[in-house]
Specification:
5 helices, mainly alpha
Length: 69
C-alpha cells in the first residue's frame, strides 16, 4: 500500500470519528465529493499537519462542494 493510500485511510478514520459517522457513511461521502482525490493530490502538504487541521480542511472542502454537514 502506498503512503498516500495509508494517509487517505488515516484521514477517513479521523473524519469518521470526528463526525460520528459509520464507515459506510464516511466512504460514501468521500467518494461522492472527491475527498480521496483531494487528499491524494495534496498529500505533500496535508500529511505534515495534525488531525484537527485535516478534519477542518475536509469540512471546508466538502462545504465548497455543496455537501450538507
Amino acid at each position: 500500500m502506498s503512503k498516500e493510500t495509508n494517509f487517505a485511510i488515516f484521514c477517513l478514520e479521523s473524519y469518521k470519528a470526528y463526525k460520528k459517522l459509520t464507515g459506510k457513511q464516511a466512504v460514501a461521502l468521500f467518494n461522492k465529493y472527491g475527498v480521496f482525490d483531494y487528499i491524494t493530490e495534496f498529500y505533500d502538504v496535508l500529511h505534515t499537519t495534525g488531525y484537527n487541521y485535516i478534519n477542518n480542511d475536509i469540512d471546508l472542502f466538502l462545504t465548497s462542494r455543496g455537501a450538507v454537514l
